[in-house]
From TrEMBL:
InterPro entries for this protein: AB_hydrolase_fold, CarbesteraseB, Carboxylesterase_B_AS, Type-B_Carboxylest/Lipase
UniProt GO molecular function: carboxylic ester hydrolase activity
Enzyme class: hydrolase
Gene3D superfamilies (alphabetical): alpha/beta hydrolase
Signal sequence region: 1-17
Superkingdom of source: Eukaryota
Keywords: Disulfide bond, Glycoprotein, Hydrolase, Serine esterase, Signal
Protein's name according to its UniProt entry: Carboxylic ester hydrolase
Enzyme Commission number(s) of this protein: 3.1.1.-
Similarity section: Belongs to the type-B carboxylesterase/lipase family.
Domain Carboxylesterase type B: 21-541
Keyword Glycoprotein recorded: yes
One of the Pfam families matching this protein, by short name: COesterase
């Protein structure tokens, strides 16, 4: 039912009855929301599609975000905003810099709750996915006593093009900063505590959190961090610009690839949907590389720089936000990347016969050098053996994708942060295999539980109505929903992921990680404290890419 009569008087916030749409007053203006129900039928006050930055269109394309200004009237936040441009069947718009706020308790007169806030930075390789409620639904988290915020940020060339002075880069990450500043200034109107903000990122979102730890732009904007399956501290070196990639984008859409100024001027005239839909043309081997547009170390052109130096250097120097961290991986990570290669005879033969050429593309290390050839030979021998690749190569290829893209970088982050930070680091492996998965059979829309692949833990944190059922208590998966949301919410509330008094979490003592004992929590059918997660495999990568080579 729509709210038909609103009287604000001198109250900071007015909340309608539960059968009416809620309305709040923020420093920027009034916001009208809607009512949803949690998995356990709690009332959720949902405010979706709230603009946090001005539309990044026309002259603002490829430029840093500009914060939203105050509005008059009541902002309609009853439905999701659009998806940022990408290949998608969802509504697409370049005017996509919006966020969603969810809570089960709003301020009402003298009753002003201040709940901890979890801010979710979505996955998608910096070129896809969204924070919309059909892909990051609040129904599971909202059974915990937190405020949840999900955000959109610019993707692909629109968010990460970097040519130097005309476009220094990292605009998608700067979008996240502006969203965090919006949260700092406005979240108390929704019952959130601006002094207790936990960043939770997954995959590219977790890459983002690594960089927020070291970015001078992000200082003081968050107080805890959850890294889900991702870190920027891997074998790759971050560039200072991506001019060659920008030139490729220009050629794909019919723009000249001459001077950056002329090229960017032409690219500003191209419809955003055309730029988003050009993504598949960047693939070089099957669907690889998994990361196309990297964050960059920004040269100083007088702009506010998001990333002034290599993150490994900054962490080694202690120049980063030292906050409590939860970090981990899934058991099989990119099995859903390896399976299509093994099942495609042409791709498998190409990779087998031209491993030196395609391995750096797939596994994200330097290309076309003598060192690259040495790395490729070592990687092949360690994971795949010396013979031709065949169907029996699936297990080795799965581990290679998992370690090169996710596991090694996450393990290195756990090691560095535990050594350099004064705050605790909690390490985990997610091994629970339910009946649903983000693994798709090639050339079909059928999902099958093939291992515990990348994103599979997200199934129990967010209701993804576009793909999966809502796990009410009739589903055996419901217990994992309760376990995982309790872990993350407890961490957001206290800085510790488990409280001994928690019946749900069964009193497990999840000890902080350090490089001496290397303890981690295995999250499966049971919660089990273990040691030495994949140490032989990760040591192999440490030897190939020693930390000193980045300093």
């Amino acid at each position: 039912m729509r709210l038909t009569h609103v009287v604000l008087l001198n109250l900071i916030v007015f909340v309608a009855c539960q059968d009416e749409n809620p309305q709040v007053s923020t420093p920027l203006g009034d916001v009208l929301g809607s009512i949803l129900s949690s998995r356990l039928n709690k009332t959720i006050y949902a405010f979706r599609g709230i603009r946090y930055a001005q539309p990044p269109v026309k002259d603002l394309r490829f430029q840093p975000p500009v914060p939203v200004e105050k509005w008059t009237g009541v902002y309609n936040a009853t439905t999701d905003g659009p998806v940022c441009p990408q290949p998608s069947d969802d509504p697409i718009s370049e005017d996509c810099l919006v966020l969603n706020v969810y809570t089960t308790q709003l301020p009402d007169g003298d009753n002003n709750p201040t709940r901890p806030v979890i801010v979710y930075l979505h996955a998608g390789g910096f070129y896809s996915v969204t924070g919309r409620s059909d892909w990051a639904g609040p129904q599971y988290f909202m059974d915990q006593d937190i405020v949840l915020v999900t955000i959109n940020y610019r993707l692909g060339s629109l968010g990460f093009i970097s040519t130097g002075r005309d476009a220094p880069g990292n605009n998608g990450l700067k979008d996240q900063v502006v969203a965090l500043r919006w949260i700092r200034d406005n979240i108390e109107s929704f019952g959130g505590d601006s002094g207790s903000v936990t960043l939770f990122g997954y995959s590219a979102g977790s890459w983002s959190i690594t960089l927020h730890l070291v970015s001078p732009m992000s200082r003081g904007l968050f107080h805890k961090a959850i890294f889900g399956s991702g870190s920027t501290l891997g074998q790759w070196s971050l560039p200072t610009n991506q001019l060659e990639l920008a030139q490729k984008q220009a050629r794909l859409v019919g723009c000249p690839d001459v001077s950056p100024t002329v090229m960017l001027q032409c690219l500003r005239s191209i419809p955003a949907e055309v730029l988003g839909n050009s993504l598949p043309d960047f693939a070089e081997f099957g669907y690889d590389p998994v990361i196309i547009w990297f964050p960059v170390i920004e040269e100083d052109f007088g702009q506010e720089r998001f990333l002034p130096d290599d993150p490994i250097k900054l962490i080694q120097k202690g120049d980063f936000q030292q906050v409590p961290v939860v970090i981990g991986v899934t058991k099989d990570e990119f099995a859903n990347r390896a399976f299509p290669v093994v099942e495609n005879a042409t791709l498998l033969e190409e990779l087998s016969e031209n491993f030196e050429t395609f391995a750096p593309v797939c596994f994200l290390y330097e290309r076309g050098t003598n060192k690259s050839k040495e790395i490729s030979a070592a990687v092949r021998g360690f994971y795949l053996g010396d013979g031709a690749l065949n169907n029996d190569s699936l297990s080795g290829l799965t581990k290679l994708y998992a370690d090169s893209i996710i596991g090694f970088a996450v393990n290195r982050a756990a090691n560095l942060l535990s050594q350099r930070s004064s705050a605790p680091v909690y390490y985990y492996e997610f091994t629970y295999q339910g009946r649903y998965s983000h693994f798709y059979l090639p050339d079909s829309n059928e999902t099958v539980p093939y291992g515990v692949v990348h994103h599979d833990d997200l199934i129990y944190l967010f209701y993804v109505s576009a793909i999966f059922p809502n796990f009410d208590d009739s589903y055996p998966e419901a217990e994992m929903v309760t376990t995982l949301t309790s872990l993350w919410a407890t961490f957001a509330q206290t800085g510790y992921p488990i409280l001994n008094s928690s019946e749900t979490l069964r009193g497990i003592n999840w000890e902080p990680y350090n490089t001496s004992t290397r303890k981690y929590l295995q999250i499966g059918q049971e919660l089990t404290l273990r040691e030495d997660l994949y140490q032989e495999r990760y040591n192999f990568w440490d030897q190939l890419f020693p930390i000193d080579s980045y300093l």
